[in-house]
Amino acid sequence: MKTILVTGGAGFIGSNFIKMILTKYPNYKIINVDSLTYAGNLENLKNVDKNDNYIFIKADIRDRKKIDEIFSSYDINSVVNFAAESHVDRSIEEPEIFLTTNVIGTQVLLDVAKEYWKVKPKDKYSKKYKEGVKFLQVSTDEVYGALGKTGMFVENMPLKPNSPYSASKASADMIVRSYHKTYGMPINITRCSNNYGPYQFPEKLIPLMINNCLKEKYLPVYGDGMQIRDWLHVSDHCSAINTVLHNGKEGEVYNIGGNNEKANIEIVKLIIQELGKSEDLIKYVKDRPGHDRRYAIDNKKITSELGWEPEYTFDQGMKETIQWYLNNTEWIENIVSGDYMNYYEDMYFNI
Ligand code: NAD
């Protein structure tokens, strides 16, 4: 039995990851630690709580005492750290929580994991071998900064983050790396491009546009809409994390992407077309400060060294995703209310 501590498992990617692992490995145990911020939603894990191999603990990754208690109660083999404040717009308004959760929270997890990380002698004649908690940090391509019209992000590029969100993720990556270099902890860092798919909080581009389109509300597009992102279906991201968790070489960073560069406006128009609405719904709004122009991921390292390949084409993934949101309007309605709506109105329509 392997026990994985998943943090942020009530969010978009973490919940998809938990479901994938529990289905794929009936002998694995998952402990999901999530503080349930506005983005954490246990509805994403409906039915999973019936699985005997799944435990949910409401806790903040910054709470050292609680994290320590969790490590002392379970024999944890690996940590997959999804927990984060993840929305760039919010980081521009309120950077502090991005630093405390994304940086300090990661450092608390590493520190506690280090205490439970054992070094056992293999036998009395051989060198020591390491066994214990593997730490996988789920990071983002945004840590590299922005690209011009050409070029791609590769793992050994310098990090040049441009938003408080990406700066906090880059800082966390460096702390994770330092625990490997300084203490020899077994770590991996994955840096993925933009995800889409079921259960994504409707403040992010694709679910926001689908939801607004369905209600025939304005579709707010930043600047000229020509910002390019490299899109990957969430289940392909999860399978890549799983590959790195099991086969990643200690201390290595792996980019994850599916070679799907699209301009934001292209995506918005595709959604309009799929839902049979009018392009008159598009409303260009003032661009986000420091908005990165283009991201593109070079995924050669993970494909050639670990044999991972994405399964979804963008067309198929988008069709399924739009259909998912059409079939799950209640899920969206439960979210798009109260505080979220106030925040949303402030963000896009008081400009
Ligand atoms: P999300 O915002 O949907 O989920 C984040 C989860 O973390 C939520 O459930 C929230 O409750 C939890 N959380 C936040 N602060 C916490 C804290 N202090 N303690 C415990 N739990 C806390 O985010 P997501 O889109 O699922 O992203 C997950 C991870 O993947 C993040 O680290 C993000 O940086 C990274 N990532 C996301 C994308 C993307 O396109 N969404 C791409 C690459 C990398």
UniProtKB/TrEMBL annotation:
Enzyme nomenclature, EC number: 4.2.1.46
Keywords of this entry: Lyase, NAD
Gene Ontology process terms (BP): nucleotide-sugar metabolic process
Tree of life domain: Bacteria
Family: Belongs to the NAD(P)-dependent epimerase/dehydratase family. dTDP-glucose dehydratase subfamily.
Organism listed in the record: Senegalia massiliensis
Catalytic activity: dTDP-alpha-D-glucose = dTDP-4-dehydro-6-deoxy-alpha-D-glucose + H2O
UniProt domain NAD(P)-binding: residue ranges: 5-321
GO molecular function, one term: dTDP-glucose 4,6-dehydratase activity
Top-level enzyme category: lyase
Name of the protein this chain belongs to: dTDP-glucose 4,6-dehydratase
This protein's encoding gene: rfbB
Names of required cofactors: NAD(+)
